[in-house]
Amino acid sequence: MEGFPVLLTILLAPVVAAVIMAFIPREEHMLIKCIAATGTFISMALSLYVYFAYDQSLGGLQFVQQVPWIKDLGVTFFLGVDGISLPMLLLTNLIGFSAVFASWNVNHRPRDFFILLCLLITGVMGTFVAQDLFIFLLFYEVVVIPIYILVIIWGSTKRVTKEYAGMKLTIYLLIGSAFLLVGVIALFMKTVAVTGAPDMSFTGLAQAAQGLSDFDQKWLFALMLFGFGSLLSMWPFHSWSPDGYAGAPTAVSMIHAGVLKKIGGYGLIRIALYVLPVGAKFWAPVIAVLGVCGVAYAAMAALAQKDLKYIVGYSSVSHMGYVLLAVASLNVIGLNGAVANMFAHGIMAALFFSTIGFIYEKTHTRWIPDLGGLARQTPRLAVAFMLAAMASLGLPGLVSFIPEFTIFVASFKVYGGLAVVAIAGIIITALYALRAGANTLFGPPRPEYDSLKDIRGPELVPLAVLGTVLVVGGLLPFLLFDMVNSGIVPLMAEISGALQLGGSF
Amino acid sequence: MNVDLSLLAPEIAMAILGLGVLVLGLIVPKGSRHGLGWVTALGLLGVLGLTIAGWNNQGSLYEGIFIVDRYAIFFKVTFLTAAFLVTLGCMRYVDEMGDQSEYYSMMLFATLGMMVLASAGDFMTLYLGLELMTIAFVVLVCFRRTETRSVEAGIKYILLAGMSSAVLLYGLSLVYGVTGSVAISEVGRAVTTEPVPALILGVAMLVAGLGFKISAVPFHMWTPDVYEGAPTPVTSFLAVGSKAASFAILLRVFVAALPGLWAHWTMLVAILSAVTIIVGNLVAIPQTNIKRLLAYSSIAQAGYILVGLVTASEAGIKGVMFYAFLYVFATIGAFTVAAYFYNVTGSDEIKDYAGLSQRSPLMAAVMVISMLSMAGIPPLAGFVGKFYLFKTIVDNYLWLAFIGLIMSMVSVYYYLRVALVMYRDEPVDHTPISLSGPVALTLIITMVATLVLGIYPGPLSEVVNTAAHSFFLP
């Protein structure tokens, strides 16, 4: 497939599907859903191809496409993937495809729903394949509007109204990105002052940023940390996450918890750390402390929840704490763990949310005391639920065990005490995950749920796709780790000099 | 004296067009004047072509009284594009008001005033263009003369515009008194960094006078009332054209005539910009009328554009021009939707927009895209515009960049409230709104332009670069 713009095709397939859907009469629900499924399937299949066709021994950026875009800003339309962005791209498409099927029963204005969903998926994908900061930003906020509209129309009002949830998601993301934007513009102007020629590509910025003073690196990194951190639900900027997921429709919860917030972690590594290593060194202890606070606080908060979506919402904040701790360790093992954990958590959270979505659809409640014994009535649903719960607590043999283990190994070397606290978080995770599973699925079956239909047909797709990845990723961890490693090692090699020289906090 | 009249060709054509439409209105019987809108629109397209054709034909007339550089040409293209889109989108609205020929000719004369303003090379030409534009707008603002609100808006506008013109004139006369010249280039040479108090007073008055035109806080009080009371197409042309023209002359006066005093006015402009951004965005939040909401948002937009003046550099001017151009599409898109919606339902209240996404997906989409472009959300044009504006100030005015970008995210809050009503709520009246051809065309042009300029701004950015560059050529 030499010369075939495969990344662009992956990116545009859902957009094309959205455009086609716009011309289909709004009553033809089945056709609309099939088109959405086809669009996302093309992207998923092609990204699987790219994942396995990527030459790890060669490393670096592959499948590159470059077109000069805006001359006076030094912007190129620059797409490419390496070992860090490929797992994220694949994750997006696995979840995107599953999300279409998790929403198979949306019958209220489905045309609008699937158009917005496809645009959302494209926006998320774009951030992972862009290798130019400006193009990255273009995609970064595309997602805001589809998410807002999806939440306010198809969301659910429980503890908070869906309007509140939608606005909270949006405002947090935007305020974070306002700081990020100031940081990006200032970084751009300062690198132009160093080299004299504008260049917005990540590599160009990283080279130019070596000429920045330590002070500049530090405050620019702080802005980016705030921007990306609030997207990653870094404690204490996490409060949008449980409320937002609770109000959002299933597909949005899946995509948001599964991949969208990973843009924060990805940006932190790919942009903030790579371009501003001295700043990263300075702020690493702060990131570690905030990460561990997030782990502990969110795990405790999850313990106290009775709404299934809130449990998973807090649990995802807690898992992102591990990612932050791993990033803060600033070594190859830690960053491998961070990227791998983002992938693992993405699959797990998406499966969790899709299962909860089905439970809610069928029983009309997510309130644990009102549920119980569902394993008897809906066994397949129960399998999906338990798979996700087990992955959440890091059961060996599932995809999330090795990433978490790696993170502890890496961070224990650097932050002994903090790592111990983080490891203790696992116990709390086990507690709430198992308790949620036990109270929802086991115990005496309730007669009112006897007539429930188990998931079947298209509803099984999320379980099949995401469940397979959970197991395969756990049994064959090298599939994920070799890939991530091939991206992290060269990145760290480039910045290791700066990391050793730079002053610490 | 050798006068190259080809430089004046667009203005001459415009004057002929304006008079022609007026005369046509007298000849044609009252019932069959619906075609005048098309005459105007196509005429404007012709003048637009003529202006673009003159891109390489730069020069100045009558010893610098009238300057035709690419800077001026670019702004003229902006005005003409705006006038064309407004005319295309408002035909039905105007037909319902009646008196088409007067309306269109006033619109053309206002555009002519803007064109003169963009080319003004001395204070007399400046004033001539400014008054031509203002007086035409006064007539247009109270065009729905049987409605009290429209007439009230007209009275407010004429009183305050007169007042601001007086202040501006006084400021110009003070500058003239100190420097002994009315030509902008000569004033630029005469003004030194050593300020005379009278000159400082003159500059302050210029800021006030032009601040009124661009509706910068604290000279913005007229904006919401006039925007609300005026016929909606006039509002949109006032928000786009009048503002862009005033920015054109603001830059010309401050950067070309008063660079010597840069150190004195730069902080003033920065503060003015910050206050305008903050007040415009915050007061927009509680609005319930779409036109008032857009009025406050346009105040905030003026604040963003002012950012480009702070550094008085080529990059800043480029930012202003780029933003002014894309602002045309965003604003006209939003106002065309509002105008058409008013035609169909007779309401400007936001709550009546309930379910618009189901009654007319195109109108709802254009409204959302236009508003988000104003808020600067990528990948829409407003984002690139803000990038160009704010990149000039991050070195010295980082606080202003923070205020600007955070407030633009705040603005998303009130824009999204409109989206909420249009998308979430079920319509009270389910009948679909069918768009007439020209309105649909206007909406599609604005939407496509906003998207394309946001995703692929490269070509426009290069055109603007050469235009901004010509500003500093002798």
Automatic annotation (TrEMBL), chain A:
Domain NADH:quinone oxidoreductase/Mrp antiporter transmembrane stretches: 130-428
Transmembrane segments: 6-24, 31-54, 74-101, 113-131, 137-157, 169-189, 219-238, 259-276, 282-304, 311-333, 339-360, 381-402, 414-434, 460-481
GO cellular component: endomembrane system; membrane
A Pfam family it matches: Proton_antipo_M
Main location: membrane
UniProt-annotated location(s): Endomembrane system; Membrane
Membrane topology per record: Multi-pass membrane protein
Entry annotated with the keyword Membrane: yes
Keywords: Membrane, Transmembrane, Transmembrane helix
Molecular function GO labels: NADH dehydrogenase (ubiquinone) activity; NADH dehydrogenase activity; ubiquinone binding
Record GO biological process: ATP synthesis coupled electron transport; electron transport coupled proton transport
UniProt cross-references to InterPro entries, sorted A to Z: NADH_Q_OxRdtase_chainM/4 (IPR010227), NADH_UbQ_OxRdtase (IPR003918), ND/Mrp_TM (IPR001750)
PANTHER family linked: NADH-UBIQUINONE OXIDOREDUCTASE CHAIN 4 (PTHR43507), PROTON-TRANSLOCATING NADH-QUINONE OXIDOREDUCTASE, CHAIN M (PTHR43507:SF4)
Official protein name in the record: NADH-quinone oxidoreductase subunit M
Organism: Desulfofundulus thermosubterraneus DSM 16057
UniProtKB/TrEMBL annotation, chain B:
A single GO BP: ATP synthesis coupled electron transport
Gene Ontology cellular-component annotations: endomembrane system; plasma membrane
Main location: membrane
Keywords: Cell membrane, Membrane, NAD, Quinone, Translocase, Transmembrane, Transmembrane helix, Transport
Class of enzymatic activity (EC top level): translocase
NADH:quinone oxidoreductase/Mrp antiporter transmembrane domain ranges (all copies): 120-408
Reactions the enzyme catalyzes: a quinone + NADH + 5 H(+)(in) = a quinol + NAD(+) + 4 H(+)(out)
InterPro entries referenced in this protein's UniProt entry, alphabetically: NADH-Q_OxRdtase_suN/2 (IPR010096), ND/Mrp_TM (IPR001750)
UniProt-listed Pfam families: Proton_antipo_M
Compartments (UniProt record): Cell membrane; Endomembrane system; Membrane
Source species, domain of life: Bacteria
Record-level Gene Ontology MF annotations: NADH dehydrogenase (quinone) (non-electrogenic) activity; NADH dehydrogenase (ubiquinone) activity; quinone binding
Topological relation to the membrane, as annotated: Multi-pass membrane protein
EC nos: 7.1.1.-
Transmembrane segments: 12-28, 35-53, 73-91, 103-120, 126-143, 155-178, 198-222, 234-255, 261-284, 293-312, 324-342, 362-385, 397-416, 437-456
Functional note: NDH-1 shuttles electrons from NADH, via FMN and iron-sulfur (Fe-S) centers, to quinones in the respiratory chain. The immediate electron acceptor for the enzyme in this species is believed to be a menaquinone. Couples the redox reaction to proton translocation (for every two electrons transferred, four hydrogen ions are translocated across the cytoplasmic membrane), and thus conserves the redox energy in a proton gradient.
Sequence similarity: Belongs to the complex I subunit 2 family.
Database matches in HAMAP family: NDH1_NuoN_1 (MF_00445)
Subunit comment: NDH-1 is composed of 14 different subunits. Subunits NuoA, H, J, K, L, M, N constitute the membrane sector of the complex.
NCBIfam families xrefs: NDH_I_N
Protein name in UniProt: NADH-quinone oxidoreductase subunit N
